[in-house]
Q: What sequence folds into this?
C-alpha cells in the first residue's frame, strides 16, 4: 500500500495530462479536419480555375469595338459629348460580362481559392469569385455537399462549449442576484425588528452562513416563522423557490454525467477515458438544446461582438466606415453574404476566421433561441384564440 | 476601365431598363426580402442607403428565426405525410420493416426529382440556361450559398409569365425544408 501511495503521485500528473488531452482532442479533431478540407479545396480550385484558358471571346471584341466607335464619333463640344456618350454607352455596358476582365491566375491563387472555399462551406457565398469552367462548377457542388455538413458539425460542437460558458455565466449572475435579494430581505427584517442586537447579529450570521448554499434558502425562510405572515416575503419566497427549482435542475444534470472512479489498474483507466470520449460524440448538440438565457441578452452580445469587429476592420479597409463595416460583418455572420461590399484585402479577413466561426456560432445560438421563443409565442396566441372561441359557445 | 464598369454595374440596378426583379419595385423588393431571410443573399440587389442597411439588419434579425420556424414546420409536415403513406401501405399490403426503408428511399427520390432534377428544366425553358447551369443554380440556391452569378428573372430581353416568381419562391421554400430534413436524416444515420 505504501509503495502504491508513492508511485501514484507522478502517475496522477500523467493521468491528468492524458485526461486533458482526451478532452480537447475531439474538438481539435473537428476543427483540424475542417481546416484540412479548406486547404485541399483551395489547392483543387486554384489548379482547376487558375489554369483556365483565357481566350478573348467574340463578345469581348465586339464590346471593345463598340466602345472605340462611340469615342471616335464624339464631337469637340464637351457638354454635348457627355450626353451622347452616356446614352450610347448605356446599351453597350448592358452586354458586359464579368469574366472578360478577370485574370484567373491573379484571382484564383492559393489565398483567393481559400477565400472562395470558405464562402462555399460557410454558405455565405459572396459571389465576387465564382467558378466559370464546367468542371469547376461540378466540383463546387460536390465540395459544398460534403463541406456544409462538416461546417455544421464544427459549429454544433463549438456551440456546446459556448453554450456551457454562457449558461455558467448566466447562472453565476442569477446566484449573485439571489444573494443580493436575500441580503436585502434580511436587512428589511432587521429594520423592522429593533430589539436586541444579539438576536439580529445571530440572525445575520445564520443567514450569511446559509446563503452560501442556495438549496438552504428554503430552510432559512421556513425557520423564520414571522415571515409566514408577511406577503412581501411570500413573493420573495416564490422567487427563491423558482430559483431553487432551477438550481436543482442544473445539479441534477451535473450528477447524471458519468462518475469516473480512480482505479489502480491503468488498462481499466484507459478504457474508461476512451469510452467516455466516444460517448461524448453522441452528446454533441445536447448542451445547445438545454440553453435557456434571455434572448435580449443574446441580441446584446451579438451587437457588442459585431461592433468590436466593425471598430477594427476600417483600420485596413480604408474605404469602409464604422456603419458599413458593421453592416458587412452582420451580413457575413448571418451567412446572407450579398457580396456588395468589396474587400481590399481579403487575406486579412482570413486571419479573422476564428472570430468568424465564433460569431456564426453566437448568431446560430441566437436564432435557435429566437425560434423557441417564437414557438412559445405562437402557442400562447393560439391558446388565447382557442379560449376566446370556447367562451362564446358557453 | 474595370473600375468604370464596376461602378456602372451597380448603377444599372438602380436605374430603369432592367427587369422587375432588378429594380426596387414591389416584386424586386419581395425577392430581395426572401433572399435575405433565407440567408441566400444573391447580392444582385442590395441596400445602398444607410437607412436601408439599418432596416435590413433589423429585418434579418427578426426574419431569419421566423424563416427557421417555417422551414421546421414544413419539414415536419413532409415527414408526417411520408409516415402516413408508409402506414397506409403497410396496412394495405401487410409489409413489415422493409416498408419503412422503401418509403424513405421513395420519399428521398421524389424529393430529389421535384426539387433538384425538374426545376432546371423550367429554368432552361424560361431563362435560356442549359440544364447543367439550371442544376448548378438550383443547388447553389437550395444550400443557401447563393453566389449571385446566376439569378432568375434578371434578363431584360426575356419576358417572364406572372406565375413564374411565385412558383420559384414556393420551390425555394419547400426545397430548403426538404434539404434540411435530408441533412438531419443523414446525421441521424451517421449516429
A:
Amino acid at each position: 500500500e505504501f509503495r502504491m501511495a508513492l508511485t501514484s503521485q507522478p502517475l496522477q500528473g500523467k493521468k491528468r495530462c492524458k485526461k486533458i488531452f482526451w478532452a480537447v482532442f475531439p474538438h481539435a479533431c473537428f476543427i483540424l479536419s475542417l481546416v484540412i478540407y479548406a486547404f485541399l479545396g483551395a489547392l483543387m480550385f486554384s489548379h482547376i480555375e487558375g489554369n483556365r484558358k483565357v481566350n478573348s471571346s467574340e463578345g469581348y471584341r465586339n464590346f471593345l469595338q463598340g466602345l472605340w466607335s462611340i469615342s471616335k464619333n464624339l464631337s469637340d463640344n464637351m457638354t454635348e459629348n457627355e450626353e451622347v456618350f452616356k446614352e450610347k454607352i448605356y446599351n453597350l455596358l448592358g452586354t458586359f460580362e464579368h469574366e472578360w476582365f478577370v485574370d484567373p491566375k491573379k484571382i484564383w491563387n492559393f489565398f483567393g481559392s481559400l477565400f472562395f472555399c470558405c464562402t462555399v462551406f460557410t454558405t455565405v457565398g459572396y459571389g465576387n469569385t465564382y467558378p466559370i469552367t464546367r468542371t469547376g462548377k461540378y466540383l463546387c457542388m460536390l465540395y459544398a455537399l460534403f463541406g456544409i455538413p462538416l461546417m455544421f458539425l464544427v459549429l454544433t460542437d463549438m456551440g456546446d462549449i459556448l453554450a456551457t460558458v454562457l449558461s455558467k455565466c448566466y447562472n453565476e449572475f442569477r446566484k449573485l442576484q439571489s444573494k443580493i435579494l436575500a441580503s436585502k430581505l434580511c436587512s428589511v427584517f432587521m429594520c423592522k425588528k429593533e430589539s436586541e442586537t444579539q438576536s439580529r447579529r445571530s440572525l445575520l450570521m445564520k443567514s450569511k452562513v446559509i446563503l452560501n448554499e442556495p438549496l438552504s434558502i428554503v430552510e432559512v425562510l421556513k425557520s423564520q416563522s414571522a415571515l409566514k405572515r408577511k406577503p412581501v416575503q411570500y413573493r420573495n419566497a416564490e422567487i427563491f423557490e423558482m430559483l431553487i427549482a432551477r438550481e436543482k435542475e442544473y445539479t441534477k444534470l451535473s450528477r447524471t454525467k458519468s462518475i469516473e472512479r480512480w482505479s489502480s489498474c491503468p488498462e481499466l483507466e484507459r478504457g474508461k477515458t476512451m469510452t467516455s470520449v466516444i460517448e461524448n460524440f453522441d452528446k454533441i448538440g445536447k448542451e445547445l438544446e438545454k440553453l435557456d438565457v434571455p434572448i435580449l441578452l443574446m441580441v446584446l452580445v451579438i451587437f457588442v461582438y459585431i461592433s468590436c469587429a466593425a471598430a477594427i476592420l476600417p483600420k485596413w479597409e480604408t474605404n469602409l466606415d464604422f456603419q458599413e463595416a458593421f453592416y458587412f460583418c452582420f451580413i457575413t455572420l448571418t451567412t446572407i453574404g450579398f457580396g456588395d461590399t468589396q474587400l481590399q484585402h481579403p487575406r486579412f479577413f482570413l486571419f479573422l476566421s476564428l472570430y468568424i466561426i465564433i460569431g456564426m456560432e453566437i448568431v446560430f445560438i441566437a436564432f435557435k433561441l429566437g425560434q423557441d421563443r417564437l414557438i412559445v409565442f405562437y402557442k400562447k396566441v393560439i391558446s388565447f384564440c382557442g379560449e376566446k372561441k370556447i367562451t362564446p359557445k358557453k | 476601365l474595370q473600375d468604370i464598369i464596376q461602378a456602372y454595374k451597380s448603377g444599372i440596378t438602380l436605374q430603369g431598363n432592367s427587369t422587375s426583379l432588378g429594380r426596387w419595385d414591389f416584386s424586386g423588393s419581395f425577392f430581395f426580402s426572401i433572399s435575405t431571410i433565407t440567408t441566400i443573399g444573391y447580392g444582385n440587389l442590395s441596400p445602398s442607403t444607410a437607412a436601408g442597411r439599418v432596416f435590413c439588419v433589423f429585418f434579418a434579425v427578426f426574419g431569419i428565426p421566423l424563416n427557421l420556424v417555417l422551414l421546421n414546420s414544413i419539414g415536419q409536415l413532409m415527414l408526417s405525410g411520408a409516415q402516413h403513406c408508409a402506414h397506409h401501405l403497410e396496412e394495405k399490403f401487410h409489409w413489415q420493416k422493409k416498408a419503412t426503408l422503401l418509403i424513405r428511399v421513395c420519399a428521398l427520390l421524389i424529393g430529389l426529382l421535384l426539387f433538384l432534377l425538374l426545376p432546371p428544366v423550367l429554368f432552361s425553358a424560361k431563362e435560356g440556361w442549359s440544364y447543367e447551369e439550371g442544376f448548378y443554380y438550383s443547388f447553389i440556391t437550395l444550400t443557401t450559398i447563393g453566389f449571385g452569378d446566376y439569378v432568375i428573372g434578371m434578363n431584360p430581353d426575356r419576358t417572364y409569365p406572372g406565375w413564374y416568381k411565385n412558383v420559384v419562391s414556393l420551390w425555394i421554400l419547400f426545397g430548403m425544408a426538404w434539404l434540411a430534413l435530408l441533412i438531419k436524416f443523414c446525421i441521424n444515420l451517421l449516429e
User: Anything to note?
Assistant: The radius of gyration of chain A is 32 Å.
